Amino acid sequence: MRDFRDAKAMARTLRASLASKGLKISVAESLELTAELFGLADWNTLAAAIRRGPTASDTASAQPPRASIKWPSGFTRELDLTLNRALTYAKARKHEFATLEHLLLALLDDPDASEVMKASEVDLEALRRTTVSYIDDKLSTWVMIRDERDTTPTVAFRRVVHRATVRSLKRETSGLDVLATMFSETASPAVWLLSEQGMTSEGLERAPPRAS
């Protein structure tokens, strides 16, 4: 099982995996994405931890620092359930971090997000299968926990949620807002999984909120 000191090897695996799907990213981008998987702000922060190595205060599994979850207010009830569902999907797999792929899987059952995806002729079950396959095949060896710590969202996950609150302006933030702002993470596997189904950021930006 890998820990955060194997980050460079993980970055190479990520880059190769994305390349096999036709999405080319630079070495630097793969390193930044790997840092996000560990919930750290950037590669420099993770590199410093790697250089430092384990200290007396480190746990036996040498896990990186963690942040507590504090979602913004003003979400629809459905989005609250969706975010919790994403964390549950990660926790059920003993993943320490919930990624955008866990979030995408949860959005498939969000009424606001799924309605727009269906209107865009997305095959939800096909997308569910490919997303689950990616999570189970590519993430299981990266971020498995070794104790009973709670699962936390990655920096990219949090960033998407924050952008969704900005997009929603004065109305409640919904799953549609989260789905739309997910496209800002252009190097994320979640985005190319959506793109494979013909989803575009332009189409989502034009989509109105679901009628209550």
Could you characterize what this model shows?
There is one protein chain. The chain is mostly helical. The chain has one domain (4-206): Double Clp-N motif (Orthogonal Bundle), CATH 1.10.1780. It has 11 helices and 2 strands, in the order H-H-H-H-E-H-H-H-E-H-H-H-H. Strands 1-2 form a two-stranded parallel sheet. Helix 5 (100-107) runs antiparallel to helix 7 (124-139), helix 7 (124-139) runs antiparallel to helix 10 (189-196) and helix 8 crosses helix 9 (175-182). The longest helix has 16 residues, at 77-92. The radius of gyration is 17 Å and the shape is globular. The chain starts with 6 loop residues before the first helix and ends in a 6-residue tail after the last helix. The model is unreliable at 54-68 (pLDDT under 50). Residues 72-212 form the Clp R domain. It holds the Pfam family Glyoxalase_8.
List keywords for this structure.
about 210 residues; two-stranded parallel ribbon; globular
What's the topology here?
Layout: H1 7-20, H2 27-37, H3 43-52, H4 77-92, E1 97-98, H5 100-107, H6 111-119, H7 124-139, E2 152-153, H8 155-168, H9 175-182, H10 189-196, H11 201-206
Parallel strand pairs: 1-2
Protein name: Clp R domain-containing protein
InterPro entries: Clp_N_dom_sf, Clp_R_N, Glyoxalase_8
Keywords: Repeat
The count of strands amounts to: 2
Helix-and-strand structural type = mainly alpha
Beta-strand proportion:
under 5%
Distance between the termini: 46 Å
Question: What number of domains?
Answer: 1
Enumerate the strands of the largest sheet in spatial order, edge to edge or round the barrel: 1-2
- Count the DSSP helices: 11
pLDDT average, as an integer?
79
CATH topology: Double Clp-N motif
CATH architecture annotation = Orthogonal Bundle
**Major β-sheet, in short?**
2 strands, parallel
CATH level-1 class: Mainly Alpha
Level of helix content?
55-70%
List the uncertain runs. Answer: 54-68
CATH homologous superfamily assignment: Clp, N-terminal domain
Gyration radius, rounded: 17 Å
